[in-house]
Design goal:
Blueprint (H helix, E strand, L loop, with lengths): L1 H24 L4 H24 L17
Length: 70
């Protein structure tokens, strides 16, 4: 379900963060980083679709206001 897809997305994001320095050093093809980024995007969208199909409400994140903004 949606939770498993979100978990998979977090793994893809972690892999992307791990690969980024290797791409910068030239040790890994940049296409690997691009693929991991696109995979993360896909998993996020798939998770939202799975949640909608299961009738789960979408929870919107609201950024907390800083004291300086009040």
């Amino acid at each position: 379900g949606a939770a498993a897809l979100h978990a998979a997305r977090s793994v893809a994001r972690r892999a992307e963060r791990s690969v980024t320095p290797l791409v910068r050093e030239g040790a890994v093809d940049p296409e690997v980083g691009i693929f991991l980024n696109r995979a993360s995007d896909y998993l996020f969208t798939a998770a939202r679709l799975a949640a909608k199909a299961a009738g789960q409400p979408e929870l919107l994140w609201k950024q907390a206001k800083l004291d300086a903004e009040l």
